[in-house]
Amino acid sequence: MPDQPGPKGLTHTAVMDWMTRFAATVRSVEPELTALDQKAGDGDFGANLVTGMDGVRRALDALAAGAGNGGSRRGPDAPLDAAARVFLDDVGGTSGPLFGLLFQELADALGMAADPPGTAALALGTAAGTAAIQRVGEAEVGDKTMVDALVPAARALASCEPTADPAHALHVAAVAAHRGARSTTDLRARRGRASYTGDHSRGVPDPGALAVALLFASAHAELTSLRRLPVS
């Protein structure tokens, strides 16, 4: 486990902080993601993810301002719902709407859970988001997509006790997602735009899968490099 404290419960503030850290992480690692995507895809993944998370930061600022004026809800699902709207409505590329689906399913799971939601809601939301992405993208594990990180993350969360500390569960998910992302390195992409590059995608981990690992890892701290992703 990292030394930095993660969220002790899935409160509105904890999820706001999580999304804010993810936005900062994405901006820090964008050059690395772009370099990988230039080798394996069309090179726009990092820029699209930054654009999306910059939009999320603005949405979170508006959410915080509205809450301060008594005009916005304060549930833990609200930041994720705001992120979903940005990615579904405003972010281009292949992966933008897919991240939107993940955020939306996480928001729905947290919104429907007993107060306060915890690890059980995280597991349900991640599983539902993974299933939705697979339905839309028709990807399976081994196709070299974000699914290669999402499926192990969902399984890791499902293996946690439902009453486990969400901070611990998110760390376990980050480790599993990172492992899954790294497993794509020697694969030939079979889905997404990277599939058009043939064997050029071999030797490069899938940037979308790495972004999934960054999402879960950012629950604990802002990451400044892909090398900071947890391995245990």
Report on this structure.
By secondary structure, the chain is an all-alpha fold. It has helices spanning 12-40, 45-68, 77-90, 96-112, 119-137, 147-159, 166-182, 207-217. 54% of the residues are buried.
Quick overview of this protein structure:
This protein has helices spanning 12-40, 45-68, 77-90, 96-112, 119-137, 147-159, 166-182, 207-217. The chain has 232 residues and is mainly alpha-helical.
How many H/I helices?
8
Could you give the distance between the termini? 7 Å
Mean pLDDT: 89
* Run of helices and strands: HHHHHHHH
Question: Strand share of the residues?
Answer: under 5%
Largest sheet: none
The count of β-strands is: 0
Rg over alpha carbons: 16 Å
Shape: globular
Features:
232 residues, mainly alpha, 8 helices, 0% strand
What layout of secondary structure does this protein have?
Elements: H1 12-40, H2 45-68, H3 77-90, H4 96-112, H5 119-137, H6 147-159, H7 166-182, H8 207-217
